[in-house]
Design a protein that fits this description.
With 148 residues, the protein is mostly helical. It is 66% helix and 0% strand.
Length: 148
């Protein structure tokens, strides 16, 4: 059970920690992180020179993603596919932790989903959902003042 839950928790912690980074630095930092994630498997060499090709692909995606959360999310989904391939081949991200690529393949889509909604901070997410809940309840999101 923990092998499924902990990667989701790690992804949510990642999102929470990113809330402390102000925009536009948050977007740029995430573009750099997804670029670096492309190099995570190079030392293992599970796919030989394809490891370098994947790294080059994520460098290109990361550069284009400097101004786009959508491209950052796409980069995380590409990394998810790479994680799955490594897990199936038996060449995990951390050699001493057999399921590390499996966990990364669960964690990465959590981060990608956050990127696809624009990479908001926890505070922004709270305000977005509390306004939506108020509108769904039939009352206005902002207080209404009536003057005689």
């Amino acid at each position: 059970m923990l092998r499924y839950v902990m990667p989701v928790v790690i992804g949510l912690v990642y999102v929470g920690l990113n809330s402390f980074v102000p925009e536009p630095h948050r977007r740029r930092l995430n573009a750099l992180i997804v670029t670096g994630a492309g190099a995570a498997y190079i030392s293992g060499g599970g796919f030989g020179l394809w490891e370098l090709a994947f790294c080059a692909l994520l460098v290109a995606v990361g550069y284009a993603a400097l101004n786009s959360y959508t491209l950052i999310g796409i980069g995380w989904l590409l990394h998810t596919a790479w994680d799955v391939m490594h897990h199936r081949r038996g060449t995990p991200l951390i050699p001493s932790l057999h399921d590390s690529s499996f966990g990364c393949a669960i964690c990465d889509p959590v981060i990608a989903l956050w990127c696809f909604v624009g990479g908001p901070s926890i505070k922004d997410l709270y305000h977005r959902f509390s306004r939506r809940r108020a509108a769904d309840a039939g009352r206005p999101a902002q207080p209404v003042t009536v003057t005689p």
